[in-house]
From TrEMBL:
A Pfam family of this chain: ECH_1
Organism, as annotated: Aliidiomarina iranensis
Coiled-coil intervals: none
Domain 3-hydroxyacyl-CoA dehydrogenase NAD binding intervals: 316-494
Keyword terms, alphabetized: Fatty acid metabolism, Isomerase, Lipid degradation, Lipid metabolism, Lyase, Multifunctional enzyme, NAD, Oxidoreductase
Domain of life, source organism: Bacteria
Keyword Iron-sulfur: no
Name of this chain's protein: enoyl-CoA hydratase
Lineage of producing organism: Bacteria, Pseudomonadati, Pseudomonadota, Gammaproteobacteria, Alteromonadales
Domain 3-hydroxyacyl-CoA dehydrogenase C-terminal: residue ranges: 496-592
Listed transmembrane segments: none
Signal peptide range: none
Catalytic activity as recorded in UniProt: a (3S)-3-hydroxyacyl-CoA + NAD(+) = a 3-oxoacyl-CoA + NADH + H(+)
Length: 713
């Protein structure tokens, strides 16, 4: 044995050929500080070995290396000097691999991401099997590659391909990786090791010029000034169009590749180190790393709950077709759980089937699925007008009109049809689960299962536990949500649950701005362009539907009469009364149509001001942001303090996946803590006279005084 560590080992597998095998305890290999130290020591052992003629790098696991250990990042990045030292030292470990005096080949299986990709780039040759997925996703964490990826990738596949890969974080499957030159060969998993050894033997024998293959990675980028100018100018325009000003990492990636293009490896690496460290100190990186860690926490928690389920969901029923019901039916059927879609009207069933067909048609057009998949999915959806078809389903998802009396009646009716152990859920967005449970004989098998529209795109499902809901019901519904490819977050019952409960104070803050004669177009512009929401509050009301928002206001007002009282003179109520329902009928705050090319467009028609009143006052962007966001953050804090949601991490993921909260801000709690608890309290107190939604809780005030945090990790 040449070297043996806890996470990797090195030994000769035939005369002159040493094999570096990554095999960490646990399910995957990753570059934590310990693994990097062992990797460095192993390479030192190899570089001084006189018998060495070639090196094979591989994994003993189903995946190669999934990247750096992100759980170490937030702690590490808090110490600037430690971060500088760490990234400089860590990146030079990969130089040791590249500088071995013999040829090296990486045998890539499964994920080779981030540091895993950078490790194979430091090898002279790369061969992958059919399971390989290779990429540099650091931009999704608000960072850039830190182990030499920005230096080596442009020199291996060219600056255009490299910039596209680095600034988008895109992954490469074997065919694409081979086409751009990221790997040198593709083989089956059965022949991966032998294929790698064959390349290595040819290089040792001099049949492959491995030194010539390595040399470009050590030198300045081989492109003339015109080529570089074209590449970097084009990339700059694309990055601004896609990333805008809120995401610094894609811009930094371009800068590091452009500045390093004329430099040899060492100086180019110094530039990468400089920009990497700079990004670690940005709010965006902390937020995006925080999202990753929160997402891991949520997924780990839901998988643990799902594993405890004793009831398997093999067949589902959806009550209420239409767009939402059709979307739920599609999602279930597309993930292998056949669905009976029941409605009382044939035209509603047709609408639901059309919704599923439309989603499948778009995927087929883009080449993401085959005609065979389309046919299989559609045949897995059984439309019916008869309750008897639901007799053998394992779960019911009720998705009828958002009316408590109608829902209660439908739920009571279906309980008599389905099996005694069938689970019943409601897709209600605001109505109390405990209230709906009163219509059932066995409320223990009932809970909320709140999907977000459009179902196939929005990743979140809120699972709402009522006071009588059993643990087994929660476990089975969580397992079903995961089976559908969704992120499941379990919350406790209250009006609006979590996401809609915190959304309505946000709408209330928006409405108060309108009451002060601030124009909705200016508010939308600030909340989209400055704060970063995908759509401002007026536009979001139009998408939700003014009638839906107005109806939900009654539910929220009943649940929280002092904080969310209904305003009959507010803009939303007035627009709903005028039957300006938003996108569903083409008129809301905005008017909707398609242009000559068939693209959707929205415009402001002055007649909207005849309904909501003329809006001629102005407010600066900071005031607009504060008056919209303080109510949302305050309500989210109440939800955690009341135990509606278990943690700040889950709350943040719910807002990002359910509402599209700007990822670079990391969620309501990350936004709060980035701003600073004391500063937030001071800001909220400034607006406290506007009403209860602006008044902070005693718990927040205490945390601000003591320097506390809402995050558990």
């Amino acid at each position: 044995m040449i070297y043996k560590g806890d996470n990797l080992h090195v030994d000769f597998i035939e005369p002159g050929i040493a094999e570096i095998t990554f095999d960490a305890p646990g399910s995957v290999n990753k570059f934590d500080e310990k693994t990097l130290t062992e990797f460095s020591e192993a390479l030192d052992s190899l570089s001084g070995n006189s018998d060495l003629r070639g090196v094979l790098v591989r994994s003993a696991k189903p995946t190669f290396i999934v990247g750096a250990d992100i759980t170490e990042f937030l702690t590490l990045f808090a110490d600037l000097e430690k971060t500088k030292t760490w990234v400089h030292k860590a990146s030079r470990v990969f130089d040791k691999l590249e500088d071995l005096p013999v040829p090296s080949v990486a045998a890539v299986n499964g994920f080779a991401l981030g540091g895993g990709c950078e490790a194979i780039l430091a090898c002279d040759y790369r061969i992958a099997d059919e399971t390989a997925v290779i990429g540099l996703p650091e931009v999704k964490l608000g960072l850039i590659p830190g182990f030499g990826g920005t230096v080596r990738l442009p020199r291996v596949i060219g600056p255009d391909n490299a910039l596209e890969a680095i600034t988008t974080g895109m992954n490469h499957k074997p065919e694409k990786a081979l086409a751009v030159g990221l790997i040198d060969a593709v083989t089956s998993s059965d022949h991966l090791k032998e294929g790698a050894l064959s390349i290595l033997r040819d290089a040792i024998a001099g049949e492959l010029d491995w030194q010539a293959k390595r040399q470009p990675k050590l030198e300045a980028l081989k492109a003339n000034d015109t080529e570089k100018l074209m590449s970097f100018s084009t990339a700059k325009g694309m990055i601004w169009a896609k990333a805008g000003k809120h995401y610094p990492s894609p811009h930094a990636a371009l800068e590091v590749v452009e500045r390093g293009a004329g430099e040899a490896r060492e100086e180019a690496l110094n530039i990468e180190n400089e920009l990497f460290v700079k990004l670690t100190q940005t709010d965006a990186a902390r937020a995006q790393v925080g999202i990753f860690l929160a997402d891991q926490l949520v997924k780990g928690k839901s998988k643990k709950v799902a594993k405890s389920a004793t009831k398997k969901i093999s067949r589902a029923g959806v009550l209420g077709a239409g767009i939402m019901g059709g979307g739920i039916a599609y999602q279930s059927a597309s993930r292998g759980v056949p669905v009976v879609m029941k409605d009382i009207r044939r035209d509603a069933l047709d609408l639901g089937l059309n919704e599923a067909s439309k989603i499948l048609g778009k995927a087929l057009e883009r080449g993401k699925i085959s005609q065979k998949v389309v046919a299989k999915t559609l045949t897995s959806i059984t439309p019916t007008l008869n309750n008897s078809e639901l007799a053998d389903v394992d779960i019911i998802v009720e998705a009828v009109v958002e009316n408590p009396k109608i829902k209660a009646s439908v739920l009571a009716e279906v309980e008599k049809v389905v099996a005694k152990d069938a689970i019943i859920t409601s897709n209600t967005s605001t109505i109390s689960i405990d209230k709906l449970a009163e219509s059932l004989e066995d409320p223990s098998r009932f809970c909320g299962m709140h999907f977000f529209n459009p179902v196939h795109k929005m990743p979140l499902v809120e699972i709402i536990r009522g006071k009588h809901t059993s643990d087994e019901t929660i476990a089975a519904v969580t397992a079903y949500a995961l089976q559908m490819g969704k992120t499941a977050i379990v919350v406790n019952d209250c009006p609006g649950f979590l996401v809609n409960r915190v959304l309505f104070p946000y709408f209330a803050g928006f409405s108060k701005l309108l009451d002060d004669d601030i124009d909705f177009t200016g508010i939308d512009k600030v909340m989209e362009k400055e704060f970063g929401w995908p759509m401002g509050p007026a536009y979001l009301c139009d998408v939700v539907g003014m009638d839906t928002a107005d109806h939900a206001t009654n539910v929220m007002a009943e649940g929280f009469p002092t904080r969310m009282a209904r305003d009959d003179n507010g803009a939303i109520a007035k627009l709903a009364a005028a039957e300006r329902y938003g996108q569903k009928n083409g008129k809301g705050f905005y008017e909707y149509s398609v242009d000559k090319r068939g693209r959707p467009q929205k415009v402001v028609n002055p007649d909207v001001y005849e309904i909501i009143g003329k809006k001629s006052a102005t407010a600066d962007k900071d005031e607009i942001i504060a008056r919209c966001m303080i109510p949302m953050v305050n309500e989210m804090i109440r939800c955690v303090e009341e135990g509606i949601v278990d943690s700040a991490e889950e709350a943040d993921i719910a807002l990002i996946y359910g509402l599209g909260f700007p990822p670079f801000r990391g969620g309501a709690f990350r936004y709060l803590e980035t701003l600073g608890l004391e500063k937030f309290v001071e800001l909220a107190d400034k607006y406290a006279d506007l009403g209860e939604i602006y008044q902070v809780t005693d718990g927040l005030r205490e945390k601000a005084k003591t320097g506390g945090t809402y995050f558990k990790s």
